Predict the structure.
Amino acid sequence: MMNSERKIPDCPVELTLQLIGDKWKVLIIRDLMTGTKRFSELMKSVTGITQKVLTSHLRSMEADGLLTRKVYPEVPPRVEYTLTETGFSLKPIMDSMVAWGNGYREQLNQED
């Protein structure tokens, strides 16, 4: 499932960070939580990412078993990305990040 070139860390936190510890990967997962997306949709929703970086991260996440890539034989080709069951199992982590971020934002607003 995971890229065979990488050593799988003993620490589960380190393993999770190895898979999703990049800000772009977390934002890609966030956007795929709501369902299948085309490459162009991800380019628009993941603000600031370059096409090259998005392509690289999508390939890596596919190799790690977090998402699937489906290519439709059309001209121009249509490519769609969907979270796998493993990718979708990150939902509780994402929900916790949302809750923490909202709480932190409230704390900052109270300090103003």
Observations:
- Residues 12-109 form a domain with the Arc Repressor Mutant, subunit A fold (CATH 1.10.10.10).
